[in-house]
Amino acid sequence: MTEQPDALVSRSKNMGYLAGVDHLRGYAAVLMVVYHGVQQVSNRVFPRVHDPLSALVVEGHTAVALFMVLSGFILTYGVGERPIRYGGFMKNRVLRVVPMYVVVVVVGMYTFSGAYSLSGVFQYFTLQATPPLPMASFGPWSAVLWTISVEFSLYLLFPFLVRFLQREGVRYLVGLLLLTNVLRLLSAATNRAAIRDLSYWTIVGRIDQFVLGMIAAWLIKRGMLRLAGTQAVLLALAAFAGVCCALWWFNANGSFYGNAVWKAQWPLVEGALWALFVAGYVLASRGWTGRVKHWLTLPGIVSYSAYLLHFVLVSVVADRMWNVLDGSVANAALLTVVVILPATFALSTLCYLVVERPFMQMRVRYVATPEPAAAT
Question: 0.90 exceeded by the pTM?
Answer without folding.
Answer: yes
